[in-house]
Design brief:
Distance between the termini: 61 Å
Shape: extended
Helix content: 40-55%
Number of strands: 0
Mean pLDDT: 81
Largest sheet: none
Order of helices and strands: HHHHHHH
């Protein structure tokens, strides 16, 4: 899957695939292309493909192997690309989340969802000597004896 295939999607389909609107995607491409170095060997993936690859990796929680096979690159390329895109987006102020102080300030209207994910004990049979079947040494075959 490449950006050429995805660019014709409607806004709703694009949002479902990537998790961001097309305008945010274009801002991400702008930020990543600004941090892109223009020397060395040309990249196999365009800047749009790199951002799309990273968004697919973050959105779908697929392994790097599966993302690599979808984009026709190696796992190492996926790892490098995700780290590069993530680093470029973190450096830009437009993609920062509010800090701890802003969350405690109360100026943000947040909705909290609580999920009960507590662990439950598993009932297993007690381990004791009566539960195991004892075997006599005479019943165990030795090498060379049939």
């Amino acid at each position: 899957m490449r950006f050429i295939e995805v660019c014709d999607y409607k806004e709703e389909q694009f949002m479902r695939l990537t998790g961001v609107k097309r305008g945010v995607f274009e801002m991400m491409v702008e930020v990543v292309s600004g941090s892109h170095r223009c020397f060395g060997r040309p990249r196999k993936l365009s800047v749009e493909d790199q951002v799309l690859l990273s968004l697919c990796y973050w959105r779908e929680y697929r392994s790097q192997f599966h993302v690599a096979s979808s984009f026709g690159v190696s796992e190492a390329t996926v790892c490098r690309t995700v780290k590069k895109v993530e680093g470029a987006l973190l450096k830009d102020k437009r993609f920062h989340l509010p800090g701890k102080k802003a969350l405690h300030d109360g100026s943000l209207d947040l909705t909290v969802i609580v999920v009960d994910a507590s662990e439950q004990r598993i009932e297993r049979p007690q381990k004791n000597s009566a539960a195991a079947t004892p075997v006599r040494k005479k019943a165990i075959p030795r090498k060379g004896q049939s």
